[in-house]
DNA sequence: TATTGTTATACTCTATAACTATA
DNA sequence: TATAGTTATAGAGTATAACAATA
């Protein structure tokens, strides 16, 4: 098998043209491929002015859990505290939340959504739901439910 | 609700302490959280000298599809051609594959795994299987199968 | 004109480590 | 000593745009 091969078959080895990649057996590989598709469609659907996925996630948690601290938010999102600073900066710059002092512990800055932030979340929630509905129209409601449950199970397992 | 809040409840708003985040309804969010867990465990399991996930993926495809081109490999992996250069460089530097000339089309460099590459893939496959088995021990065989099928369905939908 | 491999470049996301001010 | 927020920094991983060689 040494030396140059024929151009006629340089794209794939003919014996394997129909083979299913071994990779397909791995959850990790399939998770990544699916994640890339969904997040790319999220960005496309929300546009250049829209919130990035992680900014949307942070805003949703701040609205739902008023006065959450940055450390608490980082824990909920599963990222480091340092990664939150730019994210909260962006939400504050957009006028969607405020850092507020906490009486009794001056280290802490509680995060509080503004009414503009709540409105932006409502609109973004609708856009994100529309994006997922359209993108995942090939999955039935019960398939989506099963998928959610299994993905959440991975997270719960890891936490224990 | 203006002004500083009490330190006693600065971590969460008491009314929402037990609430399930709205985020949990989204496939995208849950995909990302699960993906981050699995890929972090992959890296931990394979160690600093081991292959990174995407390098493992590329090697697996080159071994299974001898003489695949870089463009073909990029297409299979769902990434841009430009992103493959450093990746193939690493595999070549490790001695796991060779770029070979193709007779009849001098633009193309077919990728061929070396025997060291095949051996490395065998060992890495075993390590990756062990990592997924251990990490996902909370999922039954049928749950894993369902999860794989649903994730692949997202990819197939997107391709059409 | 189109394609392959490549380079240059930039952007997003993440992590680690260290700092400060507080506790 | 420990914690909250912050900064600096670096490292993956990805994309876009352009180029030379070749088709």
Describe the fold and architecture.
The structure is a homodimer of 160-residue chains. The first copy, chain A, is 56% helix and 10% strand. The first copy, chain A, is mainly alpha-helical and 160 residues long. Chain A has a single domain, classed as Orthogonal Bundle (Arc Repressor Mutant, subunit A), CATH 1.10.10.10. In chain A, strands 2-4-3 form a 3-stranded antiparallel beta sheet. In chain A, strand 3 (97-103) and strand 4 (109-113) form a beta hairpin. The longest helix of chain A is centred in the C-terminal third of the chain and has 21 residues, at 115-135. At the A-B interface, strand 1, helix 1, helix 2, strand 2 and strand 3 of A face strand 1, helix 1, helix 2, strand 2 and strand 3 of B. Strand 3 (97-103) of chain A pairs parallel with strand 1 of chain B, so a sheet runs across the interface. Chain B binds a DNA duplex (23 and 23 nucleotides) through residues 36, 52, 54, 69-71, 79-86, 99, 105-109.
Compact overview of the structure:
Chain A has 160 residues and is mainly α. Chain A has helices at 27-46, 53-64, 70-77, 84-93, 115-135, 141-159, and strands at residues 5-6, 68-69, 97-103, 109-113.
